[in-house]
Amino acid sequence: MKLCMKRYILSLLALMAVTMAWSQTCCKMRCDGNFVKASDRQIQYVGRVSWRKADVASFNFPGTEIRARFSGTSLKMVCRPMTGYFMAVIDGCKAFKVGFNAPKDSDVTVAAALAPGEHTVRLQYAIEGYERHPEFKGFILDAGCSLLTPEPLPALKLEFIGNSITCGYGVENPVASGPFEDETENHWYTYANIVTDSLHAIHTSISRSGIGVYRNYDGPREGSAEPMPTQYPYTLFNDHSERWDFSRYTPDIVLINLGTNDLSTNNYDIHRYEQAYRSFLKTVRSYYPQARIILLSGPMLGEKDNNAEKAVLDRIAKDFRKKGDKRIERFDFTPQDGSLGYGASWHPSKRQHQKMAAELLSFLRKTGK
Question: The whole model's pTM is what?
Answer without folding.
Answer: 0.91
